[in-house]
Amino acid sequence: MSIRTGVRIGVDVGTVRVGVARCDPHGILTSPVETLLRAPDGSELDRLAEIIDEYAAIEVIVGLPRHLKGGEGVSAKGARRYARRIKDLRPGIRVALVDERLSSNQAHQRLRESGVDERRHRDVVDQVAAQIILESALDEERMRGDAPGIEISRPEGKDDM
Question: Phi and psi for 10 in degrees, rounded to 5?
Answer without folding.
Answer: -100, 140
